[in-house]
Request: fold
Amino acid sequence: MRLCQFDNYRLGIVDKDLIRDVTEVFEELPRLRYPLLPGDALVAALPELREKMVATANRAPVIPISKARLLSPVANPSKVVGAPVNYKKHLAEVVADPNLHHQNPAHIQAIRQSGLFLKATSSLVGASQGVVIRHPDRRTDHEVELAVVIGQSANFVAAKDALRFVAGYCIGLDISLRGPEDRSLRKSIDTYTVLGPWLVTADEITDPSVLDLSITVNGEMRQKANTRDMILGVPELIEFASSFYTLLPGDVLLTGTPEGVGPICAGDVMQARIDRIGDMIVLVRAK
Ligand code: MN
Reply:
């Protein structure tokens, strides 16, 4: 199942070029009372809601995807976890280019040494919202990544069990301002985490380690790789992350970017693609 959020936080099932509007299933979610529980209530409820969504879809209003404004398919993650240098060839390119590592030893180590980082959830947008360049005088790069959305609370999960904790997958763009500051600052700028175009539920991607991923900018191929080239695969990343903190429903794990990162500026058009998920077109804007 492919789930999207669109327009004014409507919920849709993507069916080829159409969206079937199943927003009415939000009525099934627990009534919210302050203080809210951490985590995304919709993602947490997906297993129970699935049947109801399919039934609703059959009689739902339909709109063409081309007419919808696609938002992040996850509205309220408690955290966006990033994996630095998780592809061997990307590590080699970071080591070779001072513009990428800025003499910071933490940036030129493989993932087991450098660990994970967090991006502010306020940086999250969907495909149609675009990326707004915040510091045009400095270099800003695209990073295309497989994004994993956690489906249920995961604490000290072993790699062999980890895929059971996955709700689904999206394309993720970990947009990065280059410079000497901490990753959590440079990568948390508003609109610098793009998730979409929709969530593909985990039953449709039984093996996340065999997916081609790519991104073009203005039609020029920039990054092209396969998730088999990751240093830590999805199960190992979940094991690693959940050994530090509990992953909650809706949490997003950006699994790292392959070689070929490069600059973007206002006016550029990015087109990212991942096998079994689809294509995502994202515009880069000045404001
Ligand atoms: Mn990244």
